[in-house]
Amino acid sequence: MTKLRTTLAAGAAALAAFAAPLASSQPAGKLKVGLMLPYTGTFAALGTAIENGFRLHIEELGGKVGGREVEFFKVDDESEPSKATDNVNKLIKRDNVDVLVGTVHSGVAMAMAKVAKDTGTLLIVPNAGAGAVTGPMCATNIFRSSFSNWQPGYAMGEAVAKRGHKNVVTITWKYAAGDESVGGFKEAFEKGGGKVVKELSLPFPNVEFQALLTEIAAAKPDAVYTFFAGGGAVKFVKDYAAAGLKKSIPLYGAGFLTDGTLEAQGADAEGLITSLHYADSLGTARDNAFRLAYANAYKLQPDVYAMQGYDAAQMLAIGMAGAQGDPNKKAEFAAALQKAKIDSPRGPFTLSASHNPVQDIYLRQVSGKENKVVGIASKSLADPGRGCKM
Ligand code: PHB
User: Fold this and answer.
1) Average pLDDT over residues 31-40
2) Residue 358 and residue 342: Cα distance in Å, rounded?
């Protein structure tokens, strides 16, 4: 017994000696990154593009951030808010991830943000624009590499008012992203002298647009503003043209309407004008390098989602360098990002106090298979971040 105690004590002392230098330097082992993205359903292509972009930058860094090799864990969130809490807990409790990256759908992202806030796990949102994430739910450990739903909507509201349209009908999916995109549009459009005369919606992810298109035809507005994305955006643009509306009532949208979708939309998308923090023809050295690297790696053209995934990895690397490889040093992680100018393919951007990108919103027009820049709808646009108290 005494012998056993002595052996144990010696073992503990040896362990302590081993642990001491580790505690004062960076933590050992791999950095576990949990990707929670949609790999099925209407947003499946968006999830894949985000993962591709994220991995591309990690590879550019030699597979390491903050001096630690990155190890991936994945969950398909199916864009299903009712499964979101269970899914995020699989990554946190089962896989013990250090960082969460996700997701596309605003309703799922809000559930992720709640768990991230409660557990203190780092979260970088590479798409979902829910205002709450960088508003009421804002936290030292929660960041977004994309946009808030309000941003492209607001910029488009100003642009559509400037184009002289007076009466607009809006149409979208009935959930946070649609409501907030339309809300941003309406705020700016009505400030600019226009009126939103009808707000149409259908449940996510339905694509039975026919009855609503009939209502639009009957209302005869000057223009239509819409938020749809992924598979739903493909179908909406095709149905709008097939209903004969494209030639009589100009269709505008947040740029997701025509991003990553042009192959499938074909001629029905030609000429459409949208607003977004990215475009296919920026022509900067930074964007050209990104697009070439992405095309070489995946034999595909990147889209806004790929770019946001890439920037999520850039943000992780900046934060982890500031935190010396220790994801528990959240204040240091946040401080590094707060003072960073992120060298994005979209153009350099900074983060607001609530950790949402402050960025230019481009006006783009579809020409062939590209969203071509036709102007800047809004320069250095910051989300109002209403209700954020860290
Ligand atoms: C969202 O749910 O916030 C969302 C989804 C797809 C997009 C943009 C926003 O393309």
Assistant:
1) 98
2) 11
Here the tokens at position 13 are 């002392």
Atom of ligand 1 nearest to the CA of 128: 3
Amino acid making up residue 347: G
Distance between Cα 353 and ligand 1 center (Å): 22
Beta strands in the chain (DSSP E): 31-37, 64-65, 68-76, 99-101, 122-125, 142-144, 167-173, 195-202, 223-227, 251-254, 273-276, 350-351, 357-367, 370-381
- Pocket-testing residue among 46, 105, 133, ligand 1, by greatest number of atoms within 8 A of Cβ: 105
CB 101 within 8 A of CB 72: no
pLDDT digits (tens, 9 = 90+) for 47-99: 999 999 999 999 999 999 999 999 999 999 999 999 999 999 999 999 999 99
Sole residue written with tokens 């991936």: 72
Query: Which residue in this structure is represented by tokens 């990104």?
Result: 290
Contact of 383 with 150, CB cutoff 8 Å: yes
Q: Which of 319, 389, 313, 383 is nearest to 147 (CA)?
A: 383
Q: What predicted TM-score, i.e. pTM, was given to this entire model?
A: 0.93
DSSP, collapsed to helix, strand or coil, labels residue 305 as helix
CA of 314 to the centre of ligand 1 (A): 21
Q: What is the DSSP letter of 390?
A: -
Q: Which amino acid is at 42?
A: T
* The pairing of beta strand 122-125 with beta strand 99-101: parallel
pLDDT digits (tens, 9 = 90+) for 193-212: 999 999 999 999 999 999 99
What are the start-end ranges of the H helices in 247-329? 262-265, 285-298, 304-322
Distance, in Å, from the CA atom of 180 to the CA atom of 101, rounded to the nearest integer, reads 22
